[in-house]
Amino acid sequence: AILFFVMSSLCNVNAMYEYSLSSFLAVFRKSLDQAAPDPIVEKRLYNIVNKVTENLYDYVCTSLFERHKLMFSFQMACRILASDDSVSLPLLDFFLKGNQSLEKPTQANPHPTWLSEQGWADLI
Prior knowledge:
Blueprint (H helix, E strand, L loop, with lengths): L1 H7 L12 H14 L6 H21 L4 H18 L5 H9 L19 H7 L1
Helix pairs in contact: 1-4, 2-3
GO molecular function, one term: dynein light intermediate chain binding
Protein name: Dynein heavy chain
Keywords: ATP-binding, Cell projection, Cilium, Coiled coil, Cytoplasm, Cytoskeleton, Dynein, Microtubule, Motor protein, Nucleotide-binding
């Protein structure tokens, strides 16, 4: 589900990036057939997840402009890490957006020659 929503959210980047559920299911079915079989269920699931991720990435990247591929890769990686609780969503949000506080920092910027006021506000 995570991969489908990452794929379908690309329409926010460019209206041409519209993907259907049926196209996702086609990639998913292909991945099920290609994933290495294993008698141990956990290993089989691991193989399936990896193959679905790889095939979906390849499928989507064939239709993306070059300038959007890195953004898609980053978004895909962040969503996967967030689903595993490997990255904190508030921390990731702060990393992407910076300080959203409306209040000015109470401490003066100690190094205004090399640290911008916005950079200082983000640190505080």
